[in-house]
Amino acid sequence: MPNIKVFSGSSHPDLAQKIVDRLGIDLGKVVTKKFSNMETCVEIGESVRGEDVYIVQSGSGEINDNLMELLIMINACKIASASRVTAVIPCFPYARQDKKDKSRAPITAKLVANILSVSGADHIITMDLHASQIQGFFDIPVDNLFAEPAVLKWIKENIPDWKTSIVVSPDAGGAKRVTSIADRLNVEFALIHKERKKANEVASMVLVGDVKDRTAILVDDMADTCGTICHAAEKLIEAGAIKVYAILTHGIFSGPAISRINNACLEAVVVTNTIPQERHMQDCPKIQCIDVSMMLAEAVRRTHNGESVSYLFSNVPY
């Protein structure tokens, strides 16, 4: 592929490598290091003049360092005369701070959108934004890919009785995502209504729908401390579900998440590799991983060739 360069930040080099392998090109040379005062330094090791540049950096691990590194890389390419710079951000940082839910709350997702634009990004490719309205925080094109086609494929291949299962959303916010999956599988769906006292802590839960004697599939866009997911699984087992699977796009798994999953009544917790999962999978045998690198690679290829990306919203590229 002529005139295309793909660079990787330090958050998820493994995913970037899978993307370039799929595209049949080499990863661009870049050195990222920190000075002794912890300032980030980035050196792009090859010419990007007139090139179509893609920078892969996920919002995981040291989020603020990774975000800053991405901004510096975008800017370095921009002022080195790259014709277009696209940020490939599989897991968008600060996506949960997207509205003023109480007085004096910041809308950090909008701030991140602004700083990405100011640093020189011309295009954003991301996956399963926490709220799709975040696309409207940008004045540049944003491609919000869905993990849904890959999730449907996993369900059909790995859950033997999926035809009689029920898809469950652990909160009202994810209802749209769940109804879409239930429609595509032609199964019923249920909803859990939850009330939060404060962030990362769930107060009470009410199940709406009938899960008795069925396999329940919990679907959400991200799991952080896993309080909601484990609480929901408990609720479903109480309500008579035979087995409970959890399928989440972004497995952040911070704080007590891993021990909660190990102690919860979940068959499997399925996540995608938008965030590195090797360590989590070693610590918890229940965690399984769906590879979405081919979807991101295909989005990069289509964007580079000026083709439509909408095929990826309902199909997994082979």
UniProtKB/TrEMBL annotation:
**Which molecular-function annotation in GO is an example for this chain?**
ATP binding
Pfam families with a match to the protein in the record: Pribosyl_synth (PF14572), Pribosyltran_N (PF13793)
Tell me which EC number(s) this protein carries: 2.7.6.1
Report the InterPro entries cross-referenced here: PRib_PP_synth_CS (IPR000842), Pribosyltran_N (IPR029099), PRTase-like (IPR029057), PRTase_dom (IPR000836), Rib-P_diPkinase (IPR005946), Rib-P_diPkinase_bac (IPR037515)
Positions of the Ribose-phosphate pyrophosphokinase N-terminal domain: 4-120
Q: In which pathway does it act?
A: Metabolic intermediate biosynthesis; 5-phospho-alpha-D-ribose 1-diphosphate biosynthesis; 5-phospho-alpha-D-ribose 1-diphosphate from D-ribose 5-phosphate (route I): step 1/1
Q: What Gene Ontology terms for biological process does this UniProt record contain?
A: 5-phosphoribose 1-diphosphate biosynthetic process; purine nucleotide biosynthetic process; ribonucleoside monophosphate biosynthetic process
Q: Looking at the UniProt record for this protein, which Gene Ontology cellular component terms does it annotate, in alphabetical order?
A: cytoplasm; ribose phosphate diphosphokinase complex
Keywords (A to Z) from UniProt: ATP-binding, Kinase, Magnesium, Metal-binding, Nucleotide biosynthesis, Nucleotide-binding, Transferase
For activity, the cofactor(s) needed are:
Mg(2+)
Q: Which reaction does it catalyse?
A: D-ribose 5-phosphate + ATP = 5-phospho-alpha-D-ribose 1-diphosphate + AMP + H(+)
Where does it reside? Cytoplasm
UniProt family annotation: Belongs to the ribose-phosphate pyrophosphokinase family.
Describe, as the record does, how this protein assembles with itself and its partners.
Homodimer. The active form is probably a hexamer composed of 3 homodimers.
UniProt-listed PANTHER family: RIBOSE-PHOSPHATE DIPHOSPHOKINASE FAMILY MEMBER (PTHR10210), RIBOSE-PHOSPHATE PYROPHOSPHOKINASE 2 (PTHR10210:SF32)
Record's HAMAP family? Answer: RibP_PPkinase_B
Role of this protein: Catalyzes the synthesis of phosphoribosylpyrophosphate (PRPP) that is essential for nucleotide synthesis.
What name goes with this protein? Answer: Ribose-phosphate pyrophosphokinase 2
The organism named in the record is Papilio machaon (Old World swallowtail butterfly)
